[in-house]
Write a structure and sequence with these properties.
The chain has 447 residues and is an alpha/beta fold. Helix content is 37%, strand content 17%. It has 14 helices and 16 strands. The strands form three sheets. A seven-stranded mixed beta sheet has the order 4-10-9-8-7-5-6, sandwiched between helices. Strands 11, 12, 13, 15 and 16 form a five-stranded antiparallel beta sheet that branches. Strands 1-2-3-14 form a four-stranded mixed beta sheet. Helix 7 links the parallel strand 5 and strand 6. The structure holds pyridoxal-5'-phosphate. Pyridoxal-5'-phosphate (PLP) binds next to helix 6.
Length: 447
């Protein structure tokens, strides 16, 4: 066995031994990464790529941020691990810093290893708190890959995992570009989505619902910034029917939209918040649930039936403390907002003026989506819903050829660089994207 390994390339060894996420194993062609710095990633041949994907939209402070790396090293030298029932400085400091930046009335943080566990626990807390079982979630959503989270998820990755008994009821959130409500303004879309949500609740049984879970800005499903008033309407509906409001901020939290949490920009207070990714840029796996006072008090005298060996792992929490501190010290969140307003939005609109294949540009901060379509009138996507296409494959290869890492889902490209990206780097990425998109122009058949 080891003899044959010695004659294999690193990529062959990776493919032979590692089972990869969301893939038919025989078809994968992983980029073999050997290093990364700031917004750049280097492969085994020494080629550098500008990272417009932040990996899986998690390296919010960029790669190898020195203060975060140093905090992990220091923590490893002091106390590398500790059981969850014990206390530890890095854990309570991380919890305090997260609470101080979340919402008025945020009481406690339950730490997990990542986003999907945060979602599992938020739902469990809501069910225990209300004594109800059903959960509302949006069709256009992604909430994670474990049993409850994948059933909450709206996208087609749910289908093979759907056990049909999850208690999840899906509805369509607002999305004007592909409105299912026949709306022509953002306000109409918002009002109709709220009416549909309330009707869904009334017809499913108002006393059946424990929680609604919503990505404040749906990420993987297409970066649809909710219209003004929609989330306040959701909050009102939750209050009317005693439903727990879970804001899933795993992707859109910690600076991505130009504020600590995306809900900050909508004047609402959720009851539970799930987070992961940007909390420590994913340098060590970490996620969690922020509980308001009411949810937290439910478990003051009643045992919470849930836990994890690595809940509040000191290396992950030390990385969170350093990440949050760096975001404050270096104005990283302000940078994300400014880059979105001054460089990415105008730059992407310029690309749309040049490439008709870009049907829509939307987003904020360092969180933008491009819809690639063959016809702006019919909005025919360049790949069908739930799938890819040779055309999209060609665009992605062109991006790679230009030295650009980009996030892709179905027919969409997402421009989601680290929050630390400079103006010059963002402009360089846009120039690479511009060149890559020329291969897509031939697929445009509209006017
Ligand atoms: C909104 C949202 N929730 C949950 C998750 C799941 O997080 P993880 O992959 O860390 O389990 C993701 C991952 O992309 C996400 O975007």
């Amino acid at each position: 066995m080891s003899n044959s390994r010695s004659t294999m390339t690193p990529k062959q060894r990776e493919k032979a031994s590692v089972f990869h996420s969301w893939s038919a194993q025989a078809t994968i062609d992983p980029l073999m990464v050997t290093g990364a710095q700031g917004v750049y990633v280097t492969d085994e041949d020494g080629t550098t790529y500008l990272d417009f994907s932040s990996q899986l939209v998690n390296t919010n402070v960029g790669h190898q941020h020195p203060a975060v790396v140093q905090a992990i090293q220091k923590q490893a030298g002091t106390l590398a691990t500790i059981a969850p029932q014990h206390g530890n400085e890095s854990r309570y400091q991380a919890a305090e810093m997260i609470l101080d930046r979340s919402f008025d009335g945020a009481a406690k943080v339950f730490f997990t290893n990542g986003g999907t566990e945060a979602v599992e626990h938020a739902v469990r807390m809501a069910r225990l708190h209300t004594g109800r079982q059903k959960i509302l979630a949006a069709y256009r959503s992604y909430h994670g890959a474990t049993a409850t989270s994948i059933n909450l998820t709206g996208d087609p990755r749910r289908w093979p995992n759907d056990n049909g008994t999850s208690g999840v009821v899906h509805f369509f959130g607002p999305f004007l570009y592909r409105s299912v409500y026949g709306a022509s303004t953002a306000q109409e879309e918002s009002e109709r989505a709220l009416a549909s949500l309330e009707n869904t609740i009334l017809f499913e049984g108002p006393s059946a619902f424990a929680a609604i879970i919503l990505e404040t800005v749906p990420g993987t499903a297409g970066i649809m910034v909710p219209p003004e008033g929609f989330l306040r309407g959701v909050r009102d509906i939750c209050d009317r029917y005693g439903i727990v409001y879970i804001a899933d901020e795993v992707m859109c939290g910690f600076g991505r939209t130009g504020s600590w949490f995306a809900y900050d920009q909508h004047g609402i207070k959720p009851d539970l918040v799930t987070f992961a990714k940007g909390v420590n840029s994913g340098y060590v796996p970490l996620g969690g649930v922020i509980l308001n006072e009411e949810l937290s008090a439910t478990f003051n005298d009643r045992v919470y039936p849930g836990g994890l060996t690595y809940s509040g792992h000191p290396l992950a929490c030390a990385a969170a403390v350093a990440t949050i501190q760096a975001m404050d010290d270096e104005g990283i969140i302000e940078n994300a907002r400014r880059i979105g307003d001054e460089v990415l939005r105008p730059g992407l609109l310029d690309l749309a003026a040049k490439h008709k294949v870009i049907g829509d540009v939307r987003g904020l901060g360092v969180f933008f989506a491009l819809e690639l379509v063959t016809d702006r009138e019919t909005k025919e996507p360049l790949a069908p819903y739930g799938s890819s296409s040779p055309a999209i494959g060609e665009v992605l290869r062109a991006c790679r050829g230009e030295g650009l890492l980009i996030f892709n889902n179905f027919h969409r490209l997402h421009v989601v660089p680290p929050c630390t990206i400079s103006d010059a780097e963002a402009r360089e990425g846009l120039a690479r994207l511009d060149r890559a998109l020329t291969v897509a122009d031939k697929y445009y058949v509209g006017h």
